C-alpha cells in the first residue's frame, strides 16, 4: 500500500517544518506545505492528498476554516485542525466543516500521530462504507422484485423502482408514510392481511392481493423480515414482493394461513430483538414486554404486564421525563430520554414511538457512549484549562521572577545571622514552591513541554531526599542503585513526578508505614526488568531508567486501577483532593517518551513504576545534552550583553544582576529596537557577546524573530531565550530557533549568572 499523502497548511514556517518532519518519522508522505488557504486549494487540486492538516489562523483573506470548507465541498478530503484558539465562536465555525479532529497547540508527536491515525482510519472506513452502500443500493434498485424498507414504527424509508411500479406510488410521495398506507394487502376474501409475513424454512412467501394507488388489485407474493443494526437492535422492516398470477380457491386458504402465520411471527420477531422492548397503553400500563425487557427488570413478563411503566424506572427519571413522555403519548409524537439505573450502574436511552393507542418503548444501553462523552468533556475542560493556564503561567511567572530575583539579591546583600535573614529564606522557598504549582498546572493541562537537559538521577534523588518535609508516622527509605545512567529530562518536571508520587504514598498510609523510593537501570534481559508491569509497554530492545515508589498502605481495588490516571479522579474524599497528581505524572512521563504503571493488591500497598528511556550508550557520559558546559572566561574587557525584555521590573532586575556579575549591559524593550542596536554595534566592530531575550513581546517583535534577524547578520551570535511559556517549542527545542540555552521564568540570580558564564565560556 502506498504511503498516506498529507498536506500541511501552516503559515508559521518553523511549525510547518516540525509537523512535516514528525509526519516523515511516522512513515507518512508529506505532499507539500502550504502557507495560505488559496495555496492549499491549488495543491489539493494538483496533488490530491489523502489528508489535510490545517491551521485555523492563516495569513491572507481566507482562514483555515474557510479553506477546509472549500476543500471538503470540492474534493471531500478529511481535515484535522491545528489551533491555539478555542473560543466558542471559532469552535462552532470549525465544527460546521466536520473535521476529523483537533490538535491544540502546542502538541506532542504522539498526539499528532494519534490524530492522523484516527483521521485516516475514519476516512477509509467512511469510504469503504460509502462504496458498500452504493453497491447495495444499486443492487436493490436493479432487482426484479419490489423492495420497501421502513423504520421501527413502520414509516417508509426506501422503495426501489419495481416497488414504485407495483404499488403505483412514487418514492418521493411515499417517503415517511406508513407501510400499511402504501402497501395495502388483502387475502382472497378481501380481508386485510398483516404486513408481517416472514418466510418459512425454505424462504417461501405468501400470495396476497395488493391494492395499487389507483385502486387496481394486483396479486403478489411477498416476504418480510426485521431490519437490525450491527448490535442486533431492531431498526425497521423490509418487505420483498413480486407480481404473481391471479389465483382462486386455494389462494384464499393460502392467504388466510399466511395471515395467521404472519401474526404469530410478529411475536417471534419482537422476542428476537436484542434490546428491551415495552408496549404501554394510554395510561402507561404495560401491555407487553419482550424477553430481554423481562431480564432487564428482573421480573417475569406476567409480573410486568399491568404494572406502570414509570414504576420500573428510578424516581429521578420519572421526575425529569414524565411530562415529556405524557405529552408524546397525548400528541402521538416520538420522544426520547436517557436515565441512569443505579442497581446496574448503567445508562439507558428510552425511545418511545406511537403504537396503537399507546407507545412502543425501546431501551438501549448507552453506557459506553455516555462514558465517551464524559471523557470528551474532560478533554475539552483540559483544553480550556490549557489555554487559561498558559496565559496565567506567563503573567504569574513574570511576577515570580521579580519576587525571586529581589529576594535572592536581598539574601546576597545581608550578612549571615542578621535578624530577618531566615524570613527572607522562607519567602524565597515559598516563591519556588509557587513556581512548582504553576508548572504543575501547565503540565496537567497538557501544556508543559519538557525543557530537557542531561541530568544525573542520583543527584536529583538526593535533592528530593534533602528537601522532603517528612511526616513522623512514615518511615522513608531512598534506595538508588549504584551507577545510575544519566538521562535527558526536564529536572523540574521529573522532581514533580517524584514529589507527587511521594505525596500519594503518604496519603495512602494514614496510620503510617514504610515508603520506599527506588531507582535502577533496566537494560534488556535484566532480572529487575522482568518483574516490571506489562502496562509500561517497554521497547524490548531499549534501555530504561526506572523510578519506583512503594507504599505500605491498604492498596487499590482492582476496579479502580484503570481510573487512577483519569483527570479529577481521586479515591480521597477530602474537599482539597484535586485528582490531578497522577494525571500530571502520566503527562510528564509521556512527554519524556516514557510511561507510568501501578501495581496493587488490596491490603498489600501499591507500587508505582515510572520508566524513562535512557540515551544511546555512547552518549551517556560527558557534558549534559542541550546545555553548554561552563568554561573559564578568557581575560578580556567586560563581555557585552544585549537584553530584550518588555517587563520593566524584570528588565531592571536582569540588568542589575548582570552588572553585579561583571558584565556590560544594554537594555531594550522591543525586538525591532534590539535588532537595530545589535546591527549598529556589529557595524562598528563592537558586537555583543550575548543576547538575552524574552520569548514574547505583546504588540511587538518577540525573541524568536529578533534572534532570527540578528543571526542573519551575524551567524555566530549567541542567544539565551527566557520565558514563562514553558510549553513553547522554542523553549523545548531552542537549537532549532538559534538559541544556545533556555532560562525558564522564574529564575534566581545564580541560575542566570551560571548560564551566562556557561554560554560565554563555550566559545
Summarize this structure briefly:
Helices cover 41% and strands 22% of the residues.
Can you give a write-up of this model?
The protein has 5 domains: 5-139, 3-Layer(aba) Sandwich (Rossmann fold); 143-271, Beta-Lactamase; 277-365, Beta-Lactamase, CATH 3.30.450; 453-619, Heat Shock Protein 90, CATH 3.30.565; 640-760, Rossmann fold, CATH 3.40.50. It is 41% helix and 22% strand. Strand 22 and strand 23 form a beta hairpin. Residues 198-204, 246-266, 572-579 and 622-636 have low confidence and may be disordered. The radius of gyration is 35 Å and the shape is elongated. The chain is built from 24 helices and 28 strands. The strands form 6 sheets. The protein has a 6-stranded antiparallel β-sheet with strand order 7-6-11-10-9-8. It has a 5-stranded parallel β-sheet with strand order 2-1-3-4-5, sandwiched between helices. The protein is an alpha/beta fold and 763 residues long.
Strand content: 15-25%
Radius of gyration: 35 Å
Principal-axes shape call:
elongated
CATH class categorisation of the largest domain: Alpha Beta
- The SS-based structural class is alpha/beta
CATH architecture label of the largest domain? 2-Layer Sandwich
N-to-C terminal Cα separation, in Å? Answer: 50 Å
Work out the helix count: 24
Poorly predicted regions are: 198-204, 246-266, 572-579, 622-636
CATH topology of the largest domain: Heat Shock Protein 90
Average predicted local confidence, pLDDT: 79
